[in-house]
Design goal:
Distance between the termini: 60 Å
Helix content: under 10%
Largest sheet: 14 strands, antiparallel, barrel
Structural class: mainly beta
Oligomer: single chain
Strand content: over 45%
Strand order of the largest sheet: 1-3-4-6-7-8-9-12-13-16-17-18-19-21
Number of domains: 1
Number of strands: 21
Radius of gyration: 23 Å
Mean pLDDT: 84
């Protein structure tokens, strides 16, 4: 396999993680629309609808009748990146993250006054970016799409009037497609800047588990603590080499393992009076387990037989802090607001154009309209303010390219998130 292709494939793999429109890293928080309106503050403790099944299995015991919640979140990013160079190619890429649609579905069924089961379908991780095909840094940027869906059955048991415990399993499906072009490297190795240099298309499943506990100090004060395990997803698919230097052909079967981090969340909820409640959360994301990306194929050999690439990462753990409040105006209307600070797991010295990750600030508003004792509708909006970041990166480290291809870059972006959700008690 050519060194140019190996480096392009490294960049292809890294771009699974490139997004500015979601939570830090490539986490997606949009498990409910009611949570969106409060910046997901207090999610493991509030349990105001069935969507709590995605955050704390123990909270299923708060429901005494069948509960359903289903919603759709629309993420509209405004993400840009540019390279600091004089080039006839595109150096300023705007609106590189397309609009995305994130659904969620939740169902809770009490068995008796102590036991309850539930099922949630939602996404924890995902992204989509699309650079111009003639982008200067096409070998480390291009089009990228990663979609994941978590299918999560849960069970909960109420130990006594104050304590409940819950557990569940997660079956996570992931689908990815990534493409890269030569870009500025075409002037060195030949061909057109828009020539495809690498493509990866694959999908796969991974399995994990989750635990939760709920402490109801009294009807107006409760706390939730949850743990969601690390999940390793193996993407099986095809690597395509646009340079044509893979032994046996330009397309080979291959695997890429994607490590999804563990998540620990603590939440609190306090009903101060009949109208006002406050809630908060602290979430720890275990990105330090994301140590490397390694793609393998029987037809690859990068010095290690069967290995297409191995790229060390060394991400850091990160935290997300959220604070919110809810104002219940009357029997029909409730309004909420929240703020969250989301740390990036990528240190400045490890930042690349493929991973222009930064800290984020969330500003959220939401409302619930309760039509009757059974039906309610949630609406939510959030503005994500991402920091502007910069760095340097090589377009390739191939020894066959005898010139310095280091490029300086800057990247940043914001996002507008809208959501609508229906809740029904049977």
């Amino acid at each position: 396999m050519s060194s140019l292709f190996k480096k392009s494939l490294v960049a292809t793999s890294l771009s699974l993680l490139a997004v500015q429109a979601h939570s830090a890293g490539f986490q997606v928080s949009e498990t409910s629309v009611s949570g969106l309106g409060r910046a997901f503050a207090g999610e493991a403790a509030i349990a105001d609808n069935a969507a709590v099944g995605a955050r704390n299995a123990a909270a299923l015991t708060r429901f005494n009748t069948t509960a359903f919640s289903g919603g759709l979140t629309i993420i509209d990013p405004d993400v840009h990146a540019n390279v600091d160079t004089t080039s006839p190619l595109t150096t300023d890429a705007k609106d590189i993250a397309p609009t995305e649609y994130v659904p969620n579905f939740h169902l809770i069924q009490p068995i008796d006054d102590r036991l309850a089961v539930g099922f949630s379908a939602f996404s924890n991780f995902g992204l989509s970016t699309d650079y111009p095909k003639d982008f200067h840094a096409g070998s480390i940027a291009g089009s990228t799409e990663l979609v994941t869906m978590n299918f999560n059955p849960n069970i909960a048991y109420k130990l006594n009037d104050q304590w409940s415990i819950g557990a569940g399993i997660s079956a996570i499906y992931a689908d990815a497609e990534l493409k890269r072009q030569k870009g500025a490297l075409a002037g060195i190795v030949g061909g057109s800047p828009t020539d495809q240099v690498a493509k990866l298309a694959g999908d796969g499943w991974g399995f994990g588990w989750n635990l939760g506990t709920l402490w109801e100090l009294d009807e107006n004060n409760r706390f939730g603590l949850t743990y969601r395990s690390q999940t390793d997803v193996t993407l099986d698919g095809k690597f395509t080499d646009g340079v044509g230097n893979i032994a046996g052909g330009a397309k080979v079967d291959g695997e890429l393992e994607l490590n999804l981090p563990e998540i620990i969340e603590f939440s609190g909820f306090h009903q101060l009076n009949q109208q006002i409640a406050v809630h908060y959360s602290a979430m720890h994301i275990g990105w330090d387990t994301f140590k490397e990306l390694k793609a393998t194929s029987a037809q690859c050999n990068d010095g290690t037989p069967g290995q297409c690439l191995r790229k060390e990462e060394g991400w850091d753990n990160s935290w997300r802090y959220a604070l919110g409040a809810t104002y219940t105006m009357d029997d029909h209307w409730a309004f909420r607001a929240g703020y969250a600070y989301d740390e990036s797991p990528v240190s400045a010295e490890k930042r690349t154009l493929s991973i222009p990750d930064s800290d984020r600030h969330w500003w959220s508003l939401g409302a619930t309209y309760t039509a009757n004792d059974n039906l309610s509708i949630d609406a939510g909006f959030a503005f994500l303010d991402g920091d502007q970041v910069s760095g340097q990166e090589k377009l390739t480290e191939s020894p066959s390219v005898p010139v310095d291809t280091t490029t300086s870059f800057s990247a940043g972006g914001d996002a507008y998130i809208y959501g609508l959700q229906l809740n029904y008690l049977f």
